[in-house]
Amino acid sequence: MAVNKIYQDSVAALADVLKDDMTIMSGGFGLCGIPDALIEAIRDSGVKGLTIISNNAGIDDAGLGLLLQTRQVRKMISSYVGENATFAKQFLAGELEIEFNPQGTLAERIRAGGAGIPAFFTATGAGTQIAEGKVQQEFDGRLYVQERGLRADLAIVHAWKADPEGNLVYRKTARNFNPIMATAGEITVAQVEHLVELGSIDPDHIVTAGIFVNRIVPLQTVNKRIEQRTVRPRA
Predict the structure, then answer these.
(1) Which of 13, 49, 202, 231 sees the fewest Cβ atoms within 10 Å?
(2) Percentage helix, strand, coil, to 5, in the chain?
(3) In sequence order, which residues have a C-beta less than 8 Å from that of residue 40 and are 6 or more positions away?
(4) Is the pTM of this model over 0.90?
């Protein structure tokens, strides 16, 4: 029997999924490729005590910054959070826990979680504060640190195109963390810019197979904000 993965909106797609104290992976890089409609639905639901796994924390009035403003986040597992003043204030006040990761290590922890790999060794951070409290081991004369794979109760991602089975295609930089997070959630919900007919996506162009995607939210409007607009005068 065919399963209907398409939901009318973000609120409907998350209504029976969200709960306090859950762990959520959120795709995107800066404001590029972020699942903004799904983030807004999480904010409006009022769930709290969240652990968020994301490369960054958005900015003060967009992306995951919305969840920080409402103090729904207990812990961030991230790489770069320097664009969010709200984050800095809460962290320095001891109101927010942070687990920093080198960016490549964070990506590999998520990929490993999606692949069913519980842990791996990397040279990045070995012998530094990053490695404190972790297993370190020498291989071929070089010191490595053990990092654990990451999984989440829920993964929210943004895709450019999807078919009704949940096969996803990403566009350019928006590909970033979205594909690996799509594989590492117990439930994966994708917001998509274009929902197309089944069979219309070239199989060679599919990045995330539909087997990983539980729910799809077609977007009515798409916001593509620029985190830091840099221009130069015309000649």
Answers:
(1) 231
(2) 25, 30, 45
(3) 10, 66
(4) yes
